[in-house]
Amino acid sequence: TSTNTNKKPLYVNLSGRCTRPNGFNPNQIFTTEQCRELELNGKFQFQTWSGSRMYEVTAQSINDRNAFDLVQEIKGAGGNRRIIHSRVLTIHGDNDTTVPIENAYMLDELISNHTMKIIPGANHNFNGLLYMNTIVSSILDFIETNSYTNTT
């Protein structure tokens, strides 16, 4: 049996941010009441827009998010060299106001084995289920294109 020695991990990035130059500002995302609770208690409960999940948002998680910079992770000496040497698919909507589309283009420049799928009209959450078929078929194509088979 021969094996492919060029195996590289596969990653799929859905509307992920590469960098956030001005930091994450909770006042732009959360309600006044949630921000007040965050200031007083250091945390608050956040229910997804669909109402299907509840998350705890903490001041520490916001600080961690602001401290994280994927560009530095990829380029830095102690950075995540695994990502830069992997195969990565980024799927991003061109109508995303949460994570600007420029983040997808930054990743495309940083990662040599990067595939980018831009979905026209899609927002950060891909407009609910509207683009589900496009997302699933893009991921399946990416896996199929980058899959490895052993020959005997």
Question: Secondary-structure map with pairings?
Answer:
Elements: E1 10-14, H1 26-29, H2 32-41, E2 43-47, E3 54-58, H3 59-67, H4 70-75, H5 81-84, E4 87-93, H6 102-110, E5 114-119, H7 132-145
Parallel strand pairs: 1-4, 4-5
Antiparallel strand pairs: 2-3
Question: What tags apply to this protein structure?
Answer:
152 residues, alpha/beta, three-stranded parallel sheet, two-stranded antiparallel sheet, 7 helices, 5 strands, disordered N terminus
- Give the overall shape, derived from the CA principal axes: globular
Strand runs, count: 5
H/E series, N to C?
A: EHHEEHHHEHEH
Number of helices: 7
**Poorly predicted segments:** 1-5
Overall pLDDT level: 82
Radius of gyration: 18 Å
The amount of beta strand, in percent, is: 15-25%
Distance between the termini: 5 Å
Portion of residues in helices? 25-40%
Report strand order across the widest sheet: 1-4-5
Structural class: alpha/beta
Largest sheet: 3 strands, parallel
